[in-house]
Amino acid sequence: MFENLQDKLDRAFKVLKGQGNITEINVAETMKEIRKALLDADVNYKTAKTFTDDVKQKALGQNVLTSISPGQLLTKIMNDELTSLMGGEATELNISQNPTVILIAGLNGAGKTTFSGKLAKFLKEKKGKRPLLVAGDVYRPAAVDQLQVLGTQVGVPVYANIASKDPIGIAQEGIAEAKKNGQNVVIVDTAGRLAIDEALMNEISAVKDATHPHEILFVVDSMTGQDAVNTAQTFNDRLDFTGVVLTKLDGDTRGGAALSIKSVVNKPIKFIGTGEKMEALDVFYPDRMASRILGMGDVVSLVERAQQQFDEKEAAELQKKIRKNKFDFNDFKSQIQQIKKMGNMKDLMGMIPGVGKAIKDADIDDNAFKPIEAIINSMTPFERENPDAIDQKRRARIAKGSGTDLLEVNKLMKQFNDMRKMMKQFSNPASMTKLMRNMPRTR
Predict the structure, then answer these.
(1) Which run of H or of E encompasses 143?
(2) pLDDT (0 to 100) of residue 18
């Protein structure tokens, strides 16, 4: 995400590297490169020009402190302006009504149905709501089946009327069903439509008029770049939607939609989709996204994702086992599964400051844990609980059973034992004090 833009912004900042102060000449040269980088990222031209003009105006005349360089100062100004460009702060969903009606709109293939399932899971698990999904797409084959499968996955009921081809009636029936069963959020998934299709645009306007939704979310594929922004403008003219959802931000996207859409339609980005899994939905935080675009990482989001997956009670039990040196392969496998739930590995590593740039060309496979899991799955329950009992004979059998070789099993055993020693050392305050005391001191 945003790798190409990051590279080009880095090159632009190099214009100021080694400069003792900010002048109109070196800032103008830097802004020219930044504007070019934004246009290459498919940012709206007017947005790019206004943005660079604002940055230039704020940069000129700034006193560069002795502790920072002009490049660092410009990065700070860029970070503040990017945050402002994308909305300034996160915008909450309006879900205080009972029931709250949320209408989902967008183009064909933007990911509306998948987002509807993700939103239902988000509202159920993080907001304590009781959502109902309504299958309002009467045109796409298997659209109802897809929503029902997603509903089952996230544990949320789905209202569907396969005998009807009237999306207005289905939406109204779904709301009535929610009131009857005590569900307090109704998510109406609608058919994808082209902005130029007048009949379908009239239809979704009619659904809006009939259901009086409290939120209208426009779902857009971020990989379509500037086209996404133009489409958003057309839909907003008809629906006056309340927020934008950017999907497929884990793909090879240039980032133009994320940077342009707020300034063009003046509606906040409320969510971003970062993968196909039902967990891969994040609230959009402009400040965090700005930091990631500038290669500064996003530690807050990384910690939040970890907190979502790691159970406090389970963590306390695990700490007890580590202190007693009882950490085993069952615990190790459990930790791997929790990490996998956090999302795409390259995306996660990119949230660590400084790491994103270092791994931008690296091919980090999300299946990297598979051989490790295969080796652990080939162990007997006794072996998983008693790693020290795994001798060479057992290792050879495990290698054969897991489809790996003895070298890989030996490597995993060494890494596991090293990790166990380190975890035990870090869990013991006395050992930590001794370790710190023995560390070499710099003069």
Answers:
(1) helix 143-154
(2) 53
Q: What is the CA radius of gyration of the chain?
A: 26
pLDDT at 186: 94
pLDDT digits (tens, 9 = 90+) for 211-264: 999 999 999 887 776 777 778 888 888 889 999 998 877 655 556 677 778 878
Is 316 inside any structural domain? yes
**Residue whose structure tokens are 């402190």:** 65
Sign of CA dihedral 194, 197, 203, 205: positive
The answer to the question of residue 443 being in a domain is: no
Point out the least confidently predicted range of 105-109, 121-125, 167-171.
105-109
Does the reported pTM lie above 0.70?
no
- Residue finishing a domain among 238, 271, 296: 296
Distance CA 337, CA 180 (A): 39
Give every CB contact of residue 424 below 8 A, 6+ residues apart in sequence.
Answer: 322, 323, 325, 327, 431
Helix axes 3-13, 24-40, angle to 10 degrees: 170
- What is the rounded CA–CA span in Å between residue 203 and residue 207? 6
Residue type at position 327: F
SS3 per residue for 384-410: HHCHHHCCHHHHHHHHHHHCCCHHHHH
